[in-house]
Fold these 3 entries.
Entry 1:
Amino acid sequence: MTQYAHLVGWGKALPKTVLTNEDMAKIVDTSDEWIREHTGIRQRHIAGPDETASTLSIEAGQQALERAGVSAADVDLIILATSSPDYQLPGASFMVQAGLGAARAAAFDLKAGCSGFVYGLSVGSQFIASGAYRRVLVIGAEVVSVCLNWSDRRTCVLFGDGAGAALLEARDEPGGILAFSLGADGTQVEALRVQAAGSKYPLCSESLRNGMKFLELNGSQLLRFALRDTVQGLLGVVESAGLTMADIDLFVPGQSNQRLLEAICKTVGLPFEKAFINIDKYANTSAASVAIALCEAFEQGRAKPGDDIALLAYGAGLTWAAAVLHVGALDQSPIAVSWPLATRLQNRMDRAMVTLRTASAAVTSRAGRLRRSLGTRDRDQ
């Protein structure tokens, strides 16, 4: 029997530190007005020393599992899309497996730049369709800030850090990932790359001196690629799903540049109101971008059961990836408070409850003493 890869849980994690455009203007020669006008970005989250691709992935992954009411022990495979793992070796997915307690899950890293999460959904859906696995956790996570040149205003204002996760589960009823389309053009690798720390240019004093550890970006080249190749991929995958653009309820693209996203919508004939945009809050989080946006769309009620959602991403490689997701019935469980941000919130709530109970007890005690005092006075009179 054919198995369909349905989305049953989602989650996201953002670093605590937020840099606004005003903050960026103190670092490089730019302004809030210029950044907003040219990109749509207002702020971005930047990872601290203890926030890595794996720690953010664990938090996002746990949320996805808890929303679906699924134990980590029941996950068969973890796919982590990232270009900024904790270490050169081993992959960050193995630390995520350990951190989640998914002891029997296979795991691997997937590197496809900004397209990575949609690549991961496509790969995960095929493992489910083949019958090899029942539950696949797909995560997109990036700490892009570690490879940014913070004196280069052309790049440092564009990116942020974060992670998003989606749990795919096998079901008999049609739905879930209806179709996907992947593409690459390896002749354009120089358009978006970080040269150092690979086998060609090992991380050494010379590569550091030459600035090869920093992200290099050719914006105009990426723009042409997005408006040509990725648009055709989006139109093709919608057709493969047996739909038209008019049937699409929600469009969740990689959050690269708001102007570009408006141009893509216009080119494919999709009202921009159908696009989910959160670049203003998070900037471009690369492989985490579509994952975070999809999670937030569910949280805000923009994505819901019965919807047909188009996903689109493009980036380093150059690569692009498109998919159509039909949202099936959701049996959402409450999120258990057990992870870093939530744990701090729970601790505060616990302290507040203790304070409230203490205050209540004090009031009750005082009221009792007052009643006894009044009773004594009545008898004396």
Entry 2:
Amino acid sequence: MSDLSGSERRKLEKLLGMGGGYVLNFSDRTFGDFFDDYRVEIDADQYKVRGTSKANRMRAFWDVNGNHVVGRVIGG
């Protein structure tokens, strides 16, 4: 689990435009492609525990993975 604080999560959600279940302008395909670059299977069941929207899968990604993995993906 990453050590993102509540305020850090809120800032990231705002930065990534995560309102309404979206993340930036990703389609489902491009969202998956982005995570594939980091060898993360974002469509796996472990990331669908909060729901299947891109925003919910991103939140689950933050919950499931450690700081190193989350930081690598956030840092691009």
Entry 3:
Amino acid sequence: MKATKVWISAAILLLLLAIVSAPLASAQNMKTLGNMDVHYMAIGATFLTPQVAKAYGIERSKYNALINISVLDNTQQGKPAKAVSISGTALNLTGQYKRLDFEEVREGQAIYYLAQLNYRDKEKVKFELTITDGSETHELVFDQTFYVD
């Protein structure tokens, strides 16, 4: 049992590192908003392994997306993770809004905010997020088109 927990924790940590590293490689998935460097991505949940999806309570379906936001404090050396409050909506081309419910996940020094969203094949979604750290509030807007695997 203990070896299984260690393996799942290691797998989760590797996934989360990959999620954060992917935006670092592409400037289009990072925006500087005041004292926050906000890394964001939205992917189909089937990219997650079944073990990772289960560990985080994420529905692993070809019609379900995972939205991942991480915020770094760009005023401090090393840019440590920053705890924030995130709210937002997803809007599709037919005008349907869905409120996103972000859950905070902490793994060591890392902090992630995860939300889920159902989608249809080739659906373009506009994300409108409000991010606040207690002293600053900023808006993050981005689009993502989802495809069914």
